[in-house]
Amino acid sequence: MGEKKNHEDQKYINGLLQNNSFIIQAIYDKFVPKVVNYIKQNSGSVHQAQDVVQDTLITIFNQASAKNLQLTCPFDAYFFLLCKCKWLNELKKSSNKEVTINEEVLSKNDDAHELAFETSVFGEKQVLFAEMFAKLGDACKDLLKATFKTKSMEDVAKNLGVTYAYARKKKSLCIGKLTELVRSSPKFNQIKM
Amino acid sequence: MEEEKYIQFEAYLEQNLNEEELEAFEHKLKTDSDFNEGFQTYKSLNQFLDHKFKNEDASEAFKNNLEGISNAYFNKDEASNKKQKPFNFYKYAVAACVVALLGFFVFNQFSTPAYSDFNNYNAISLTVRGENDALLKTAETAFNNKDFAKAEDTFSALIKLDATNAEYKLYSAISNLELNNFKTAEALLNDVKSGHSVYKNKAIWFLGLSKLKQEDYKSCLNILKTIPEGAEDYKRAQKLINKLD
Asked: Where does the signal peptide begin and end (chain A) (predicted)?
């Protein structure tokens, strides 16, 4: 996206990142009613709208903390597109059609669409990765958790009662296993990486 | 072979490859698309796990806070939707009352006045005179009971006995007016009007009402305007004039 200047609405992204209740509340008051209306008008319920909004904000939070999300468009447009896209995907899923992500909704080439597309793909990947992680065996889960939570591999090895070399090898093999699970998932090819 | 690949991926990310290995690895990334794709996924997963576990607490705190705000927002929304029903009902009830009241005033103010708005007479009392007591009593009772046919008959009889009595003529006229005998009524009223009795102005008022009942508003107006300011019915006449004008 080059060197684009951040939009003043970056404050909403930063607020989410800081878990600022005031900002989160402001997002609900200002931007959520439009989303609720849209979902209600498109065969959804208020309850479903609540879930879509919540999931979308979690995705934004995750992208902001993992990828240093920089907003180059109004938050309103970005947020609405994300929720809309999420809802249309939900509809497609529930009607058992093949899930094709974002194409129609997010194909227009402006900042809001581009950014919403990026976040949307990021979110889909997160969901897929979390799903596949859950499929790993407990030994891998525990090792990976320990590895990423603890800074030093030596400590990890000590805590798990294995050698340092084994812990390192095991880590790469567990991520390798996860890589295979992800790559063999049908969802994986539907997500534009 | 596969295992070796992942160990290599990890070593590359950890920058644990020597120069030779590094060159070979990067060459393979450029030439082997499956290898490359595997590596990109491995790298993404590495980042995902790193973020997932390092930010677990912050992420959990955010989710909890978000859920609280979300629930408060949507429950408030639901609650206010529920509350809105009685509130709306209350609003509609008030609106209906206002409309009804407005309607009442507007109706009174702007609707065309009708004879029935004005034909409220006080009960008459005629039996003080001593003469023709029976007839007078009959006339009085009939008139007060709004039996105007009987009242008219009796007043006619009384007029025959006392042809100059303006009071009989007035009540006879009113009875005729009630019976829609406008010609007779107006003849009697004109008679009283052209006389000099205390009923003179009363006669003009009822002439006006006769025209009103016949919906001849223009004549009604012209007649009412001739009622002098000091007359008993002057105020009522002015009101009626205002409504007709």
From this structure: none
How much is the pLDDT for B244?
81
Instruction: Give the other-Cβ count within 10 Å of A35's Cβ.
Output: 23
* Cβ(A115)–Cβ(A73) below 8 Å: yes
H or E stretch including B71? helix B56-110
Give yes or no for a contact between A28 and B69, defined as CB atoms under 8 angstroms apart.
yes
Choose the weakest-confidence range: A105-114, A159-168, B152-161, B196-205.
A105-114
Distance CA(A184)–CA(A176), nearest Å, equals 12
Residue B171 burial class via C-beta count within 10 angstroms: exposed 0-12, middle 13-18, buried 19 and up: buried
Task: Answer whether B217 touches A (CB < 8 Å).
Answer: no
Between CA B186 and CA A44 the distance in angstroms is 76
Give CA–CA dist A52/A49, Å, rounded.
Answer: 5
ipTM value of the model? 0.85
**Dihedral sign (CA B38, A179, A99, A67):** negative
Q: Is B191 exposed, middle or buried (0-12, 13-18, 19+ CB in 10 A)?
A: middle
Alpha-helical (H) ranges within chain A are 10-17, 21-41, 46-67, 75-94, 111-135, 138-149, 153-160, 164-183, 186-190
CA terminus-to-terminus distance, chain B: 108
pLDDT tens-digit map of B168-179: 888 888 888 888
Chosen for mutation from A175, A177, A189 (greatest number of chain B CBs closer than 10 Å) is A175
Q: Residue A47: its chain B contacts at CB < 8 A?
A: 74
Assign A99 a pLDDT band (cuts: 50, 70, 90). very low
Annotate B81-105 with DSSP letters as a single string: HHHHHHHHHHHHHHHHHHHHHHHHH
CB A72 within 8 A of CB A9: no
Residue of B nearest to A141 (CA): B49
Contact yes or no for B41 and A183 at CB 8 A: yes
Closest-CA distance, B94 to chain A, in angstroms, reads 29
